From TrEMBL:
Keywords on record: Decarboxylase, Lyase, Pyrimidine biosynthesis
Matches recorded under PROSITE patterns: OMPDECASE (PS00156)
Protein name, entry field: Orotidine 5'-phosphate decarboxylase
NCBIfam families named in the record: pyrF_sub2
Example GO molecular function: orotidine-5'-phosphate decarboxylase activity
UniProt domain Orotidine 5'-phosphate decarboxylase: residue ranges: 17-255
CDD domains per the UniProt record, alphabetical: OMP_decarboxylase_like (cd04725)
Functional pathway: Pyrimidine metabolism; UMP biosynthesis via de novo pathway; UMP from orotate: step 2/2
Lineage per the UniProt record: Bacteria, Pseudomonadati, Pseudomonadota, Betaproteobacteria, Candidatus Accumulibacter
Active site (catalytic residues): 95 (proton donor)
Length: 273
């Protein structure tokens, strides 16, 4: 799969900008799954199968799997998505950041071990820290730019030669760093003004936007600020609000209902009645 091609096709074929984040917390699972050795895979697979026709991508967060020693379940989950829903790209949310041979190992982990189609990366160590990921020409590299957490302003708003650091990064990534066309940026839904600024600086570059739902980001403001002229360009992520919409045996159906509502709310702003 070529990530950028698959993402563009998913935007069109599913008429959706919704990305479902897979952040499995066993403490929040329905009672009938607790204690099962493969509960994480079973839970996430049910969510995936219930929402696959509604999304442009899935985004498993590696820490939720690694903390439970469930990397094999993550590997099985991504394999299931590729097998059962082969046109949906999978973003491994790991926010890797290092240089040289260590970055090469992180790239092997993401793209060869887990078979992810894209990876989130922390770019603040500079261009050479992302080059090992760019060596995988069909993969997406999604770089942190303006993050959704309040503390992001501590560094990302620093003045660097008359512009904010996140603005400098957006220009670098969309210009010299993106000669292969593999790059995208993370910009939080909690800052729609900064989404608009990043869109202004980067043209049609895809933006992964976390922060709606449990984090309080506004869907309409996000869409207005970040959509391209063709009504796409965004991967609007929702995790907890969808995953934990229900806590009974019908949890996947409850997740689907919230995913439908979220997708439709996004589309109402893309294509106002």
């Amino acid at each position: 799969m070529n990530f950028m091609h698959a993402l563009n096709a998913a935007w069109q074929d599913r008429n959706s900008l919704l990305c479902v984040g897979l952040d499995p917390d066993p403490a929040r699972f329905p009672a009938h799954l607790r204690g099962q050795p493969d509960a994480i895979f079973t839970f996430c697979k049910a969510i995936v199968d219930a929402t696959a026709d509604l999304v442009c991508s899935f985004k498993p967060q590696i820490a939720y799997f690694a903390a439970q020693r469930a990397e094999e379940q993550l590997q099985a989950l991504i394999a299931h998505i590729h097998s059962a829903h082969p046109t949906i790209p999978v973003i491994l949310d790991a926010k890797r950041g290092d240089i040289g041979s260590t970055a090469e190992q992180y790239a092997i982990e993401a793209f060869e071990r887990f078979k992810a189609d894209a990876l989130t990366v922390n770019p603040y160590m500079g261009r050479d820290s992302i080059e090992p990921y760019l060596a995988y020409g069909d993969k997406g590299i999604i770089l942190l730019c303006r993050t959704s957490n309040p503390g992001g302003s501590d560094l990302q708003f620093l003045d660097v030669g008359g512009e904010k650091l996140y603005e400098r990064l957006a220009r670098l990534v969309s210009g010299d760093w993106n000669q292969s066309g593999q790059c995208a940026l993370v910009v939080g839904a909690t800052f729609p003004g900064e989404i608009a600024r990043v869109r202004e600086l980067t043209g049609n570059m895809p933006l992964l936007v976390p922060g709606i739902g449990a984090q309080g980001g506004d869907i309409e403001a996000t869409v207005r600020a970040g959509c391209t002229a063709t009504g796409d360009g965004l991967l609007i992520n929702s995790s907890r609000a969808i995953l934990y919409a229900g806590n009974g045996e019908d949890f996947a159906n409850a997740a689907r209902r919230v995913a439908v509502d979220t997708r439709d709310a996004i589309n109402a702003c893309r294509h106002p009645a």
